[in-house]
Design a protein that fits this description.
Helix content: over 70%
Shape: globular
Radius of gyration: 22 Å
Distance between the termini: 42 Å
Number of helices: 19
Strand content: under 5%
Amino acid sequence: MAVDYTVIVVYLAGMLAMGWWGMRRARSKSEFLVAGRRLGSAMYSGTMAAIVLGGASTIGGVGLGYKYGLSGAWMVFTIGLGLLALSVFFSARIARLKVYTVSEMLDLRYGGRAGVISGVVMWAYTLMLAVTSTIAYATIFDVLFDMNRTVAIILGGSIVVAYSTLGGMWSITLTDMVQFVVKTIGVLLLLLPIAVVKAGGFSEMKAKLPTSYFDPLGIGGETIFTYVLIYTFGMLIGQDIWQRVFTARSDTTAKWGGTVAGTYCLVYALAGAVIGTAAKVIYPNLGSADDAFATIVKDELPVGVRGLVLAAALAAVMSTSSGALIACATVANNDIWSRLRGVVRPSGEQHDEVRGNRLFILIMGVGVIGTAIALNNVVEALTVAYNLLVGGLLVPILGGLLWKRGTVQGALASVIVGGLAVVGLMAAFGILANEPVYYGLLSSLVAYVAVSLATRPTDEAVLAAWRERLAGRTPDLAPEPVPAHQ
């Protein structure tokens, strides 16, 4: 295992080095939070694919393939569909807004007063998303070093917190590009063909497994529908995803770069399901489907390759974890803390804003690590995150983009009613039940439409300013300073 350990240690050291390098570029709020809005198509596509394909998509996707066969691809497939929908229909408009958070977009569209409440819901989502990714370190480091769960979470979480705090979005972008390459080589080019060969090829897999394993709808129609509601729609509105859209150099980059990333996700989904199906042939009696990835990597891959594939799994977890962490800190600082304090910073205080956001990443990172140590169930934490996001924020966000008649009162009612309905229904039916997101989303829609129609339309001046921002005409925004070394 010495060679595998060396591969992992070099990888982790590289992540920290890129965090240090990114710190030199992050000289303004824009550089720190959205990489100066200067990413070209190649970097944008790679980093977007990296953030949406995390530990759940890699380890969980293989586990679903082990349990259901090819139809286990649906979870990650719906993530790819959501990213494609966001990129084709909404990303250009989102990029032209030149904001930092989803709540800022809601304030622009509805004329203020929606930010704090929507910020709290978005903060809860990004916090739980970061926690689920951090918990996944325990699985990977257990395979690598037979490490204690708490120590593994602290080790993996501390590395992500370190490079995210140092360089913000620039560090995360650089590390995500490396993580994208490592995942592509480790999972698609190495693990996928090796797993199929070890299982005896597709003909042997078909001979040894039930036909349901090769039924594209074998996982069940209701499950697929729930995945669409949670993951496809979740991709449209998450702060972690939008913050990556804000990094695009232009609306064209956001549209076509995101389309490439979404297509990559579809390929990754199928690869994970095939690897899981192959693992079912090789290890038909695993105690847990989620052990399939670690088992096939540990037992079937040669020295060196095993280290690279485990680094790929680590890359998947780290990319999602760092993206969720900076999103969580951005929302906490810009949408909650600054608004509650009523602080409006002068435009010249760029360095102080970097320092403040850096401090919030550190604080949120410590909180995420502590929460991850206290929680055990990754699936439940992830379900809570997406139920809150979709049930509380989908309607007012898409309504603001698509329906002129929506009002700030309707948006607030939608967030509050939908959020409370989701929480209440999870308490009544259980966290993993489908009813919370179904009825939470429905109640949010009813509240939005009813209250919007019952209140005065949004002021025309607010809508005119909103249309100007959507069109990319923002004369009130001073250009971001470019660091001297650029």
